[in-house]
Design goal:
This protein is mainly alpha-helical. The chain has two domains: 2-265, Ferritin, CATH 1.20.1260; 276-362, no CATH class. It has helices at 13-20, 29-41, 43-51, 59-85, 122-132, 142-148, 156-170, 200-215, 230-239, 284-306, 314-332, 355-362; strands at 2-5, 8-11, 241-245, 253-259. Strands 1-2 form a two-stranded antiparallel ribbon. Strands 3-4 form a two-stranded antiparallel ribbon. The two termini are 35 Å apart. Residues 1-7, 141-153 and 357-363 have low confidence and may be disordered.
Length: 363
């Protein structure tokens, strides 16, 4: 279960305790499934912000958000590989897999940070996206560092640290899964980031990729491929400059690289927290949002098939992301509403599960 303390996404102590108490591989199944759900839960909000960027505008910000989305897909894949490797079975194509927006992140209780689907603003980046990706020791932000250091509360990175530590304790004996289920596609993801998980060492290596890409290390804001971790990539949009090495400052890095200009006047005024009920049945907006829901459900169902015995399908599956982008650009965000509470705004994807799409692909 996740909660937030002063709007900082944290992991409750009982989750960490449950992981540390694991004695067998099956004891870790629920936590790795939760990891898959958590990594996925960030994708619809990030994509909505990305889709709100009008073509040929705010290109640096768009590139940053797109790069984070791609890595979230990688993180889902790694977590699913680890779960398969210890004999579990990832689940991705069920209605509850897609969280309700607006709402807390998966496993969250007691209120806290609410994540919705909204067009891009600097406030959204700073108050939601950066909160999600907050490192355990955010550099150059001593106040935030003090908040997350509070006893009994830990960042999402600490959640992965606990799983890594327990896998190290349980060792290779828990890796009883079928190696043929491992998903590897080095066309989409580099071989040092996505690789077969067959033992404790490779599982730890994969989970470390997730943590480092999201947070950086405790002493370095860059990930293993020498680009800023997600938190700092989002901060580049807020600060307006790329984060680069800077020997002139104590921290060794500063936001003094190439500009990341952001023009809010060009952002498409999308319907926030869109649902299919926001649109008139029979309208072009309704049809576009419905089609986007269908494609996103198809993507989840195809991912389910990929991790259930068809690992070679990953490349074809991820191509559905581009189909979703085309549908959103052509049939959704160019539809301006003329009546109702959202008059003047443009249609937005709702990322709702469509059972008919799941059934059609499963047939």
């Amino acid at each position: 279960m996740l909660t937030t303390r002063n709007n900082v996404v944290s992991v409750r102590p009982e989750i960490i305790a449950g992981i540390r108490a694991a004695k067998t591989g099956p004891d870790l199944y629920q936590y790795l499934q939760s990891a898959i759900e958590l990594e996925h839960a960030t994708i619809p909000p990030y994509l909505t912000a990305l889709f709100s960027i009008a073509p040929n505008t705010n290109q640096a910000a768009a590139q940053i958000i797109r790069s984070v989305v791609q890595q979230e897909m990688l993180h889902m894949t790694i977590a699913a590989n680890v779960l398969n490797a210890i004999g579990g079975a990832p689940t991705m194509n069920q209605p509850g897999f897609i969280p309700t927006f607006p709402g807390p992140l998966p496993m969250s209780v007691d209120g806290g940070l609410i994540v919705g689907l909204a067009p891009l603003t600097l406030n959204l980046i700073e108050t939601v996206f950066m909160r999600i990706e907050l490192p355990e020791t955010p550099q150059n932000f001593p106040v935030r560092a003090q908040l997350v250091a509070d006893q009994g509360f830990n960042t999402i990175g600490a959640f992965y640290d606990a799983i890594i530590a327990q896998i190290r304790v349980l060792g290779n004996a828990i890796f009883t899964g079928n190696p043929a289920l491992q998903v590897v596609d080095n066309v989409w993801f580099p071989a040092d980031q996505l690789f077969p998980v067959t033992n404790a060492d490779t599982a730890i290596q994969g989970l470390t990729v997730i943590k480092t890409q999201g947070e950086g290390t405790s002493t370095d804001p860059l990930d293993s491929r020498v680009q800023p971790a997600h938190y700092y990539r989002f901060e580049e949009i807020v600060k307006g400059y790329r984060l680069v090495k800077d020997p002139s400052v104590e921290q060794g890095y500063s936001f003094s690289g190439p500009p990341v200009p952001f023009d809010p006047t060009t952002v498409i005024n999308l319907v926030s927290n869109s649902t299919i009920s926001d649109y008139e049945p029979g309208s072009l907006a309704f049809a576009g949002v419905q089609q986007a829901d269908y494609i996103y459900t198809s993507l989840l169902n195809a991912l389910q098939q990929t991790f259930s015995g068809n690992p070679g399908n990953l490349s074809t599956t991820l191509a559905l992301m581009y189909e979703l982008k085309l549908v959103v650009q052509e049939a959704v965000v160019n539809q301006q509403l003329t009546s109702g509470p959202n008059a003047g705004k443009f249609a937005a994807p709702s990322f709702q599960f469509t059972p008919t799409a799941a059934a059609a692909l499963a047939a």
